[in-house]
Amino acid sequence: MVHETLAELRGIAAAGPPYPPAFLRRLRGDPRAGAQAVYATCVRREKRAREQQAHIDQMWRFERRVIANGFTRVAGVDEAGRGPLAGPLVAAAIVLGERVPGLDDSKRLTQAQRQRLFDKLRRGPHAIGVALIEPEFVDRRGIQEANYAAFAQAVAQLEPPPDFLLVDGFAIPGCSIPHMRLIKGDRRSASVAAASIIAKVTRDRLMLELSDKYPMYAFAKNKGYGTKEHLAALARFGPCPVHRRSFAPIAASLDTEDLFPASLEEDSDSCA
C-alpha cells in the first residue's frame, strides 16, 4: 500500500475537522509512528469540535424555546460593574442576527477572546443597545434600581424593538416586554452571553479612560474593584468623582453630607 508522506498527512490534518472518514481509516491503519501521532491529533480535534458544537446548541436552547412560542426578536440583556467601588454600571442588550461561535460568559473568556468577540459582534448583523449608569445614580437610588434602569435603557435603544427578553439574574420591574429571568444566564444563553461581552468590554474600555484621568487609583488594572492597591489609594487620596460614595468602605470615611455631592437628573427606567 502506498501511503501519503507524513508531511502530506499533517497538511490534511491542519485543515481541521470534520475529516473525511476514509482519511481517518487510512490513518488508523497506517503503521508508522508519525501517522499514528497525526491520527491521535485528528481524533482529539474531532472530539473538541463535537463538544464545541454541543455547547453552541446548548447555548441556543432558550432562544429556540422562545421562538417556538411565536416570538421573533429575542434580546439578551446583561450588565457589568455591579460590584466595583468606582466607575459606571454598564448594561447591554442585543438581538443576535446570526450564530456567533465562541460565545460564553464574559468572565470565562480571556481578554483577547472578549475583544475578538466584541469586535465581531459590533461588525455583525446584530441590534445592540448599551446604557451607562453613573455613580451618582447608584448612590441616590441604590445598585438594584441602577441595574433595572440600565437594563431598561439598553433595551429601549434596540431598533426595531424586541418582543421577548432573556435577562441575566432577575426580572425587570415595570417592563411591558415579556421576559424570562435566567440565573447565570450568561453561561446558558447565547444572547445573554453576547450582552455580557458587550457590557464587559465597553466598561473595561471606559475604565482605561478613567485611569488616564485618575492615575493614582490604577483603574486600568483593577477596573474599579476594591483591590488592596485601590484601597490603599483611597486611604491616601480619598475618593474621586467617579467613586461610588454609598459603597463601603468609601461611605464609612465620609460625612453624611458628602455622600451625594452632585445633583442628579432623574432617568426613565421603564422598558417601554
Question: How would you summarize what this structure contains?
Answer:
This protein is 46% helix and 11% strand. It is an alpha/beta fold and 272 residues long. It has two domains: 6-59, no CATH class; 62-258, Nucleotidyltransferase, domain 5 (2-Layer Sandwich).
What features would you highlight for this structure?
single chain; 272 residues; alpha/beta; Nucleotidyltransferase, domain 5; 2 domains; 10 helices; 5 strands; flat
Helix content: 40-55%
Give the terminus-to-terminus CA distance. 71 Å
Q: CATH first level of the largest domain: which class?
A: Alpha Beta
SS summary, helix count: 10
Count every beta strand, where a strand is a DSSP E run of 2 or more residues.
Answer: 5
Principal-axis shape: flat
The CATH topology annotation of the largest domain reads as Nucleotidyltransferase, domain 5
User: Do you know the CATH architecture of the largest domain?
Assistant: 2-Layer Sandwich
Domain module tally: 2
